[in-house]
Amino acid sequence: MLTSNLTRSARLTSQRGALRRAGFATTTSEPSKYKVLVIGGGTAGLAVARQVYDRFKDAGKSLADGDIGILDAAETHYYQPGWTLVGSGLSPKTDFARPLRSLVPAHISLISENVKSFSPDSSHVMTTNGREIGYDVLVVAAGLQTNFDAIKGLPAALDDPNSGVSTIYSYKTCDKVWTDIENLQSGKAVFTQPPGIIKCAGAPQKIMWMAWDRFRRTGRPNIKVDFYTGMPTMFSVKKYSDALDALRKERGVGGHFSHELVSIDAANRQATFKKAEDQSTVNVDYSLLHVTPPMGPLNVFKGSPIADAAGWVPVNQATLQHVKPEFSNVFAIGDCSSLPTSKTAAAITAQAPVLTENLFSFVDSGKVTNAKYDGYTSCPLLTGYGELMLAEFKYGLEPKETFSDIFDQTKPNRFFYHLKKDVFPLAYWNFMKHILVVASTMSRMTAAQIISLGEYLEPDFDPASLTVSQLLGVLGYHNIAYPTPYPKPKLVQIFNNEVKSRANKFKKERVKKENSIASEDGITDGVTGEPLGRKGRAPASAPRRSSRRLSQVPKVEEESSPPRPEPPKRRRSSAQPVLGGRSKRMSLAQPADTLVEESEHEDESPVKKVGRTKKVPTASHSRRISHLSGAEDSGWEDNNIFQSGAESSSPARASPVRPKVSRSAAGPRKSRKSTSAPPEMNSSSPIRPSTLSPPQSPFRPSLPPIPKFDFSKPPSTRFTPIREFSPAEPVKAEPEAAEERYTATDDVMAESSSGEAPELDSVKSEEKPDSHALDSQQQSQSQLDEAIAEMKTVDMHQLAPYSMAESSPRHWLLRGLLWIFLLTSLFGVYNYKAESSSIGYCKRGTNTSQALESIFAKRAEEQLCRAKLLDLQNSTEHEQATTKLDCDLPPLVPLPRPSSCTACPDHATCSQFDVTCDAGFLLKPHILLSFIPVSPSNSELTTAYLPKLSETFFKAVSVGLDGLPGFGSIALPPRCVEDPQRKRHIGALGKAIESRLARERGKRICRGDAFNASESLEGYEAAKTWGVEETQLKEYFRSKATPKVLAHFDDMFNTAIQQLTQWGGVFVGESADGTRYIAHKTPEMSWQCILTVKSREAWAAWRTTVFVSILSVLAIIGMRVKMTQRQKENRVITELVQVVLDTLRNQEMAHYTDPLTAPEPYLPSLQLRDLILQTEPSLWIRTKLWERVERVVESNANVRANLEEVPGGDEMKVWRWVGSSGRTPGRKGREQEEESEE
């Protein structure tokens, strides 16, 4: 437990040590201490509080109820993004407000106070009520404040319904925006945005675009729309700013940038803006003015130790932890943080999972994890009704778009519009409890992502920052065994022993594996000689031509032959080799001849071709050539081992004629070999064995089947890579009938798959004449055309093409795996359903039950038993001890198990499988089964009943759905609804009681009781004075009740009194001996009684009014006299000022006219006073009048006041006339001389 007498460093060391060992400090019995304290109950605060609780629960370290507290005095929670919809007339503002307490789960405490100060050194805060609240971890999510007073005249203009000034940044005024838009018929609509930080920087122009669209849709195009913004551009992200500016120009909206609104004159409908460039102001007339007020940090943060100089909470941009190490248990999120990103609700949804993960890791290990926030935020910019531009970006104002592969997000889209208008508000209110939790789970990196990053191989990596599932994934990836069960400390130990000790080896394996990935580097085009990588980056590619190639070795061209044209760009899939195993298309396309690349040495022997054992008919068994239109048009080479010949073995085409080879040139006849076999190489050829399989071509011709070819299912073949080999034994000749069933390629494939060794038939392509090859190509072309023409005349149903997959072992393996998966899933669902359906209902008002607690206890016993079984594996008494433990090993694949019961319906008491409604409520089926007719209640005032429907139907529903995943233990629980007939009786009785009590109070007021009738007092004395004793009132109404309700009268009477008390019209007082009096707060009187009471009240009230009126009259008379006197003084002052000015002017003229008579051009102020006011005997009056004269005279521009030394040696204030009327021709020169002398 942390103590306040520790120093800061020692306190932090103790705190982190405690957090590592136990997760949290031990909760004290003091109620004002929370393990996690969240400041603010907005979107960020609610999201973090829920996610933190669920994160600890998922990790098996559940917090107790009340360990997390939310500190916020607000009573209402607002969905602020919806205020734009209110201002646009799309929704009422009541749709976006909910009581805050209704959104806070029961296991989280809501503290209805505000924070006053922070003391992070001692880990506590002070509330506005003077309460000190401690914490282990603090999450600041207090938001920011809107400074309406920063703009002069704005608060008064917003309160004035006729000012034309409104804003969507307040729940109070957001509906006024729509009213002003609808009422405006002509004139100028001005929309403003301040410089600096605001909530959702796109909102000021959202409402502008909606207003513009509304004006056009309703026939008001004469309204001019202007946008005055304190920012230099339309939006902070250039991509969206350019699109918005283009939209502004297209729609004719005025754009005035770097203009800040400073004041509003609502009376004259004029707004004053200050320009940023020169700080000058400009006045703008408006008919409608939408104001976005400046915003900033809350006052509580200014000067706080956890805030910076500007008032924001400084946090790490990636982890959201406080930047000061001594405040490492402080996190911040949302608008109050210093994160350099837009302050929106979308940003909070991305920040909350990161903060949750880092907070959990900090508590669990003392360090934050690798979860990082990249600055993502989103701004849905409404640009009109039915269209919206979705701006998404991250740190650095870099776009990070979700739908960029589907839409151009700079173009307004209707899909985005409905997300903003319909989906987001619905999801916020109805699914907030689940969506934010799912976001937290999705934000954690998977084990595959951890492995792909490879950061866990660094020396300073802390394995404790990983979750159990991530540790298991890393250990499994490296084939490291781990114990079962697998507690996290044990996994961390294994990680340190097995992974860290071999980190360098694993790094080398990663580099080696990365270097073995297929690449085009070093592979050149056989025709042009250019690297494939360069060709792949060609700007344009021609249509692909035939990919069939010659089965002969290409002939050497003559020097005089024209150069080949640039071959078309190749498809990457047909040029890149496939590594590791058989291609997915091997079952459909057979490999072709594999020839040696042209890069071999020139002195090697020529490549030999595949021989045949016997002659085959030309029409059906000759080998086809893969190039029908000439070798120059093909994008393939015969000597490229990375090309696929799958198309040459397609069974849908007839095989063209293979050119005959001279027997003498070919050498001795040898047995047939598979067409997929490599050519024989010279023994000196430095070819090494290869494990690469050539890729298969994706080309598949769409031709009808050939009717006279009866294809059978060919055996699956395995491609033989290039390798050195020796000739094998000759194979026996196949029967003629068997050869007629296969094409040449299929025949050779069959032999190859039968185990007979293929053999090469030596052919010297150099001795073949070019004309013979050309004749063979033309003959193949004609035969192929005849085959295609014949196939078009045959119906498709005459031949059913076989499927290679039917006989593939892989196909049957996949089928088997699929059936195993389905059966396993069904078995898992059955077990889950059986266990879940046995739980039943929760206890009333809780989320647990006896059955659920017993299941948890049983699971805990199984876990303990498995732990003991694991500990006994290495013991010498293993066999005797394990026989005593009655538990099974954990499943290989962890399956979900039910962990919750079905909540008991409201107004009901539940046992494990039964529901009993409270008095006054009826048991009804679930809302989804409400269409099923049920029998009415047994009596008019029954309080509970069971539907008299066939029990078979409800049992069938229960057996089929109870316990299924997603349905809960009880799939469709019933509900308790209030008995409508009983409700009507209680309502009638309540009205009668209320009327009776109101009349009783009216009678007592009318007779003039001593108490003040205007006061609404509560308590026993007030109830006794104005009300009726409860027993007397009950007997009064019992005597008037009908016989059929007498049996339930007491219950109805008590319920009616309770409802009246809750509604506030009636109050109850109870004495110490238990006597209860019931009274009404409002009297009910006749008109005669009202007249009497009003007369008494008027007499009491008018006495004060008369005295006040008399005093008011006297005050008015006094003020009138004073005003008359002041007016008289003003006239005197005016005359005196005129006399003074004339005297000074005359003195100036006299000085320059006759210096001897007037030696000085000025006159002393006091001497002038005594001269002019010599008729006033009172010195006080003279002084008072002269003070006012001095102010007026000295403010005159023609008079200069100085201190001069007058005759007699005194220094006095003098006045000198400097006006032009008093100047003489030589005055200017004389003044210059005097100044020079001075």
TrEMBL record:
The keyword Isomerase does not apply. Residues 644-659 have a biased composition (Low complexity). Residues 609-626 have a biased composition (Basic residues). Residues 731-744, 761-773 have a biased composition (Basic and acidic residues). Gene3D superfamilies: FAD/NAD(P)-binding domain, MAN1, winged-helix domain. Residues 34-168 form the FAD/NAD(P)-binding domain. Keywords: FAD, Flavoprotein, Membrane, Mitochondrion, Nucleus, Oxidoreductase, Phosphoprotein, Quinone, Transit peptide, Transmembrane, Transmembrane helix. One of its GO terms (molecular function) is sulfide:quinone oxidoreductase activity. Belongs to the SQRD family. This is Sulfide:quinone oxidoreductase, mitochondrial.
